[in-house]
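*** Query protein ***
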Amino acid sequence: MTFRYFSTALTLGAAMPGVVLAQPAPATASSGAQPVIEITAPRLARELYATPAAVSVVDRDEIQQGQQRVRLDESLVTVPGLFLQNRDNFAQGQRISIRGFGARAPFGVRGITVVVDGIPYTLPDGQAQLDAIDLDSAERIEVIRGPAAVQYGNAAGGVISVTTADGSDDPGSHVRIEGGSDGYRKYAVSNGGVNGPWSHHVSVSALNVDGYRDHSSTEKYLLNAKLRRELGSDRALTAIVNLLDNPRSEDPGGLTREQVHEDRDQAGRFTEAYDTGQSVDQQVLGLQYEDLSAGPGEFYLKGFYLKRDFEQQLPYPGDSLIDYQRDYYGASAEYHQTLSVGDMPLRYVAGLDLARQQDDRGRKNVAFNGDVTGKVADETQTATSVGTFLQGDLDLTERWTLSLGGRYDRVDLDIDDDYLSDGDNGGDRTFHQWSGSAGLSYRYRRHHQVYVNTGTAYETPTFSEFANPAGIGGFNPDIEPQKSWSRELGLRGNFDNGLDYDVALFSVRVRDELVPYEGDDGRTFYENAGDSDRDGLEVALGWQFDPSWRIDSALTLARYEFDSYASEAGDYGGNRIPGLPEQTWVNRLTWQGLDRRFAALETQYVGDMVADNAGDVHVGDYWLVNLRGGDGWRLGGDTVLNLYGGVRNLFDVEHYANVRINASNDRYFEPAPGRTVYAGIGIDF
């Protein structure tokens, strides 16, 4: 794709005059009025302290200040209940779990809805990828820490909603150049501004990493652009373009424990001989219209189209070279209105979501010596989803608010087999799902709230999870969607002295839990593993105890286990769900000096976990310490020079970046790098 050559030339050319993005100072403690925090991820826009659900908001400073902005874990590390793995293997992608949802994913994202600027990156079949999220232009990330099927339908065990800049909040141009350990290089250029009714923001970046392990390099180019046109005081039209060119991401594979002890840097078996890894070429286009005076309410109409070309070589001989060409498109319409029921104000949103995914997917055989010997699968996978929902907040009094919501979804999954030499492995399934939620919020002070909620959610198997262990293609007739019922009690607030708190108790019951296992040939298959329980406590505390100093802490204490799970391999009832730590604790101390000077010290504790359903493979706990800081200088006018740097894993602790769940041949482990450093220089003008 020509985009990567264009982006490299543009980045290097723009970088020549100078160099980085300077950061604004964070808000300081004040005894005055506190800012109103509004959230939009639940689709019914509310003030945070009127929302009867656990929602975390990550602002621009946390996303950008002194960060590499390469992977989501940098921004979301202080969100309780959320756990990320696999920062360093770009070919597999980060594994994200929220309250246990998404833990089963061997690559990509499962069970969690990902939305970027209103465009759903989660497909109708329930899978999602994160490789096109541009953190250089991200202004805000909202995380719903629990099921949200009423708002988003399939695979909404949690929600990550990213909003990028539109030019009005961050005008001007920014250039950054970064370098660091393991051959890390990144270049980024952005420009935004407002001109009358027009506003725009464009961000271009180029990333190259040699990698900590053998055969783990990455080359990636990304463009994110937003153009907005005001059509009067109440109407606007926004166009969004996102281009991803990832010509190479090598996959070093998993290792046995003995191989890790022998050499943490080595790649797994077959990886170098077969040149394992992936290449991706993706384009996303979005068009959104809003009318804030549509009759007595507000009307929003959104449409999008995504095209993705993908190829991946897996680390085993046999049917291990896969590719697909994806067309994914859809639209949504929402109507928001405020009215009165008697003397009680009612705010509601009614919406319709439509999406269609079509994958032209193939698979080729790779001989033991690495030669590609021919096609073994050729099929078209089509998923269509239609969902309609209604959600409302009724203010019973000035302090009490009742929230109710319901949704109906129809999901059609179809495989048309075009490779018939081994028989027709096509098939189709249709799922009809109802979801509901109810919440009650009591605002006992202006910025203090207690709430309870309950809701249901569901998650269909993805196309890859429907793979039939009895053959290469076709549906597994024994696999069904998993369904969950969640209950939550929460407490949040913000004091005038700079102290804020967010506490949530949750309990989730899951039926027909979807669990992965690896077959003898190294391929991953899935089965419904009976029922599971997920119970826990999430605590997030923050204290701006001085205008220059702030401390944040995020604690998760949970229990994730199979309530019942009987399979041919054994009875795993009472065992822990693999791939999930049950305790995590993150602390961050931030100092903001004069103007652009800052420093942040971060500690992260990750509890132990198991790597297999039987609970025989134990993975120990660990502590990490990260440090970053920087300074900025005004060069004249609006031009600011910024220098920053950071150290990850300051004390060189040996741990695993990823644990491959139920891996074959004991290849469970992907070692993480030891101490790494990075530094950046940039200029704003």
